[in-house]
Write a structure and sequence with these properties.
- The complex is a heterotrimer of chains A (about 260), B (about 350) and C (about 350).
- By secondary structure, chain A is α/β, with parallel strands linked by helices.
- Chain A contains nine helices and twelve strands.
- The two termini of chain A are about 30 Å apart.
- By secondary structure, chain B is α/β, with parallel strands linked by helices.
- Helices cover about 50% and strands about 15% of the residues of chain B.
- In chain B, the strands form two sheets. A six-stranded parallel beta sheet of chain B has the order 2-1-3-4-5-11, with helices on both faces. Chain B has a six-stranded mixed beta sheet with strand order 7-6-8-9-10-12, with helices on both faces.
- Chain B is globular and about 60 Å long.
- In chain C, strand 2 and strand 3 form a beta hairpin.
- The chains are: A alpha/beta (about 260), B alpha/beta (about 350), C mainly alpha (about 350).
- Chains in contact: A-C, B-C.
Chain lengths: ~260, ~350, ~350
């Protein structure tokens, strides 16, 4: 099923003084699909995130949003376009409650005129509902502190928050990096749920196993360049791992006729 | 219930709190708060005096404290010393007086450092039936408060005499150093010094040492030294407590070694007396605070028992100590440390 | 076990909630109470009061006079500690509060005592000074990203120097007496049987601060700014505006205390209130405000102020060496902070 991509990178490069962080990268983000951005540290993944979220602008190439050429000059513009990012630190405040965390920056209010008060009951309700939709059943009290939640549950909160407030593209930066096996499984399940609700997910990771488990499309970066791009089922886990770290295997795989980004 | 690690955490908290309280209780038990034990069956036993005055960290007050404690022992009465905090002088002048009143003593002896704030409280104590005797500070307004007397010295008059004496010794431009800025009494002393110096044809200036610096010898010395350097006209310094006098001497030696600077101070110490003997200090002015302490308690006790007291102001100063009487003073200071001044 | 097994669509294993036994419901109720930021402060103030009431009773601690004295003093500290505590929850410090009190004091005293003009004029000028100080503190911290500790320390010295300079230039003195009369005196320096109006001011401030912190959007922003500023900003919280407003609030609290004390003592002094830089922060910390920000409450700051007030004055009624006050307060702060951190761990510990 192919639909109009929300985001398209066309031959995008980012050059810092002396360093080519990203070179000639092209890929698309399609609603309802998980695109995995793979690569070792320093491959250029964080630069791609920065360009997507408006923290950096490309030095060459174009970024298209809904088919229109766009340049984000501030993070706020990216967010307004529906691009939400959940960073590794998850962006939740452990000493605040689940409800308050969920509505931070977009708090529901009740009352009139100068007496507008925080509608905590509503905030808690929304938070618990969205988290339950993502399959988190253990959290039942919106007033409990986020610090009491597991790593996976905090991811659910952050992801639920992003989707509730209208994200069309969800960028997940290494969401499983600090998590154990069980928690990682929770997060991978979350990603699938989000994808199923029609959101385009960009899943950045250096864990080939996790990528292989959830991804629909894969883009492998190595030293800023796209060294492989393929779809679900085209590669085994082992092949993905080798791609990410490169080596003689790389050349062999590249000549087997897979679509590559233009150099 | 709570799982083990959390229970341990909470228990730890209780133990720590209990330990903290226990430590302070033990310390409290070991040190009595300036209240001397009462002699049973003394003529005045049973009488309790609250003495509100300055902190022992200010070198002026230890002799007063010693005097009050000696009186407490000699007379067999309980004396509670309630010191203000010189870094928070207005507020603690009020709270110490409030505490004194609330403790319902037989009489209060108080140094009124901030008369506008303390005098109303003296009136309140008197209205509640607690007689009040004013000691050392508050000489200009005590009569209107209902207190039954004052012991100490007339700050302005003493300052004037000191200023005149310094000018008479040859100082034409005198610096008065205030080490507790905001203390009205010290400001009045410097006003007096100014008047005295001017009467001999000289001029006077004032240096306020920031309160934060005043207990730091290096800072005070540096502050005074800096002033001496930048004001080459200064040839006389008057300090309002013994420690600052010592710092003034160091400052003069390092910042203006070629200038003859006449230095004098209020309140004496063992070092100060040596400096008078050696000539580094022109003279020392003593209010004889030991007498303020001892007689303050004595007068209060006799007023409580008989209703008798000296009428009006009792002067314990100024006593000028210079080269003419230093020898006899030195002997007393050696025999009885802590009486004439701080060691 | 393969990846497929790991993410097979099975719901997590959770024991079905049928009925919870009463004791475990009570447990979780107690636990959530103990986890509140003011829990430590509340426990501490009760323990401390009971201690002094028992040991200090003979010395008169429990009399109405004594209670009026420590309560009025604690209220003044509370007026400083509440807005200062809010600022600390947002992750910043204000070391200039002490000198704002002194500057206010000298301003009011000069206007009222030296120039014989209406105290309201002096109060108005002092308020403007307070707002300016808060504004400058806030803008510098927000623009330069320097630690507020340093910025407000510098402001403290600048203001102290300015106060001495202005005071000496105009009046030649650092301490000026002022005998105000009229409405200003009744409002700020009024008292009823020894209980000062500072208690009323503190109470009102407590209500306003609590409602703002717990019930408004702005309050949520305060917690977020202190909890993790970059996250908060990412979520659209205007952290700069939050901080600047709180700096202004902290200065205005100091102005109010300066006015109250100057009119009460009928005396203005540049050194008035210098202790609040320490005692204000101590009160907030004893009351459960985290030094690292993001956690705390206004009522906690008040509990801390009450505790400090009881200890600093109660010690005289015990007949102890008054120099022990500082020792006791030091130990008390350690114990209170330790208790607070244990209780917080209880709250954040996973169920």
């Amino acid at each position: 099923m192919s639909t109009q991509p929300i985001i398209e990178f066309r031959n995008v490069s980012k050059h810092y003084s002396g360093v080519d962080a990203v070179v000639g990268l092209s890929f698309t983000l399609v609603p309802g699909e998980v695109t995995c951005l793979l690569g070792e540290n320093g491959a250029g993944k964080s630069t791609v995130i920065k360009m997507l979220t408006g923290l950096e602008t490309p030095t060459a190439g174009t970024v298209l949003v809904d088919g229109k050429e766009t340049q984000f000059s501030t993070p706020r513009e990216a967010r307004a376009a529906g691009i939400s990012t959940v960073y590794q630190e998850v962006g939740t405040l452990p000493l605040m409650s689940v409800g308050r965390n969920f509505v931070l920056g977009a708090e529901p209010l009740k009352g009139f005129g100068p007496f507008k008060f925080l509608d905590i009951a509503k905030a808690n309700r929304i938070a618990l509902d969205e988290m339950r939709k993502l399959g988190i059943a253990r959290v039942t009290n919106g007033n409990q502190l986020v610090g009491t939640l597991s790593g996976g549950e905090r991811q659910a909160l952050a992801i639920g928050r992003a989707t509730y407030f209208g994200a069309r593209v969800l960028v997940l930066d290494e969401p499983t990096a600090a998590l154990g096996l069980r928690e990682s499984a929770t997060v991978l399940r979350l990603i699938e749920k989000v994808r199923d609700s029609g959101i385009a997910v960009l899943f950045i990771t250096h864990n080939g196993y996790h990528a292989h488990a959830t991804g629909d499309n894969f883009v492998v970066l190595r030293r800023g360049a796209n060294v492989a791009q393929f779809s679900r089922g085209d590669r085994t886990v082992g092949e993905i791992m080798e791609l990410m770290s490169g080596g003689e295997e790389l050349a062999r795989l590249l000549t087997s006729g897979e679509p590559l980004a233009a150099d | 219930m709570l799982d083990t690690s959390r229970r341990r955490g909470l228990t730890g908290a209780y133990i720590a709190s209990a330990a903290g309280l226990a430590i302070t209780l033990a310390l409290a038990g070991c040190t009595s708060g300036g209240a001397a034990s009462t002699k049973k069956d003394s003529y005045y036993s049973g009488i309790e005096i609250a003495y509100v005055s300055g902190p022992l960290s200010d070198s002026f007050f230890p002799p007063m404290y010693n005097g009050a404690m000696q009186a407490s022992e000699d007379l067999g009465v309980k004396v509670t010393w309630i010191p203000i905090d010189e870094a928070d002088i207005e507020r603690t002048s009020v709270t110490t007086m409030e505490t004194a009143i609330a403790s319902k003593p037989d009489a209060i002896v108080v140094g009124s450092f901030v008369p506008s704030a303390v005098d109303p409280l003296i009136q309140k104590a008197v209205d509640q039936g607690i007689p009040v005797y004013v000691s050392q500070s508050g000489q200009s307004s005590w009569e209107s408060t209902g207190a039954f007397g004052f012991i100490g010295q007339d700050g302005v008059a003493s300052g004037t005499k000191a200023g005149a004496k310094l000018a008479g010794n040859g100082a034409k431009s005198v610096l008065c150093v205030i080490n507790v800025p905001g203390n009205p009494y010290l400001a009045q002393l410097c006003d007096g010094v100014a008047a005295g110096v001017q009467s001999e044809g000289g001029t006077s200036e004032v240096l306020n040492i920031p309160t934060a610096d005043s207990t730091d010898p290096t800072k005070v010395t540096a502050d005074i030294g800096a002033y001496l350097k930048t004001h080459a006209n200064i040839d006389g310094v008057f300090a309002l407590n013994a420690a600052v006098g010592t710092y003034a001497i160091s400052a003069a030696e390092s910042a203006a070694p070629d200038r003859e600077i006449h230095i004098a101070t209020l309140a004496l110490s063992a070092v100060g007396l040596d400096d008078v003997k050696s000539g580094k200090l022109d003279f020392v002015v003593s209010e004889q605070p030991y007498l303020d302490g001892y007689l303050g308690v004595l007068f209060a006790v006799q007023y409580v028992k008989f209703g008798l007291s000296p009428i009006g102001q009792v002067n314990t100063g100024p006593l000028f100590i210079d080269k003419t009487n230093i020898e006899s003073i030195l002997k007393i200071a050696a025999d009885y440390p802590g009486v004439l001044g701080s060691s | 076990m393969t990846n497929a097994d790991l993410i097979a669509d099975k719901p997590p294993a959770v024991a079905p909630r049928t009925s919870t036994p009463a004791s475990s419901r009570l447990n979780s109720r107690i636990r959530s109470l103990l986890g509140r930021p003011e829990a430590g402060g509340a426990i501490t103030v009760v323990v401390i009061y009971v201690f002094f009431a028992i040991v200090g009773q003979e010395g008169g601690f429990t009399t109405l006079d004594a209670t009026a004295s420590w309560l009025s003093n604690a209220a003044e500290l509370g007026i400083i500690a509440i807005p200062l505590g809010l600022l600390m929850i947002a992750g910043e410090f204000d070391l200039s509060v002490g000198t704002v009190v002194g500057a206010t004091s000298i301003t009011v005293a000069i206007v009222t005592g030296y120039f014989d003009m209406s105290p309201w004029l002096g109060i108005g000028i002092a308020a403007v000074i307070g707002i300016l100080v808060g504004l400058v503190n806030g803008i510098i911290v927000v623009r330069t990203k320097l630690p507020s500790f340093i910025v407000t320390l510098a402001m403290m010295l600048i203001l102290a120097g300015l106060a001495i300079f202005v005071s000496s230039s105009i009046t030649g003195a650092a301490s000026i007496s002022a005998a105000p009369t009229g409405a200003a005196k009744d409002i700020f320096a009024g008292e009823w049987n020894g209980f000062g109006t500072s208690i009323v001011f503190c109470g009102v401030l407590l209500v306003i601060a609590t409602v703002m912190l717990q019930k408004t959007r702005f309050g949520n922003w305060i917690y977020a700014t202190g909890g993790n500023e970059s996250t908060a900003r990412m979520m659209g919280v205007p952290t700069a505006r939050v901080k600047i407003l709180l700096f202004i609030g902290s200065s205005l609290g100091a102005v109010l205390v300066g006015v109250i004390q100057t009119l009460t003592f009928s005396n203005g002094s540049i050194s008035l209130g210098s202790q609040y830089v320490f005692t204000g922060i101590a009160a907030a910390v004893i009351g459960g405000v985290l030094l690292t920000g993001g956690f705390g409450s206004a009522i906690g700051a008040v509990f801390g102020a009450l505790t400090y007030g009881i200890v600093s004055l109660g010690v005289f009624y015990l007949g102890w060496d008054a120099n022990l006050t500082q020792l006791f307060i030091g130990i008390l702060i350690l114990v209170a902070v330790f208790l607070n951190s244990r209780l917080r761990r209880l709250a954040v510990g996973r169920s």
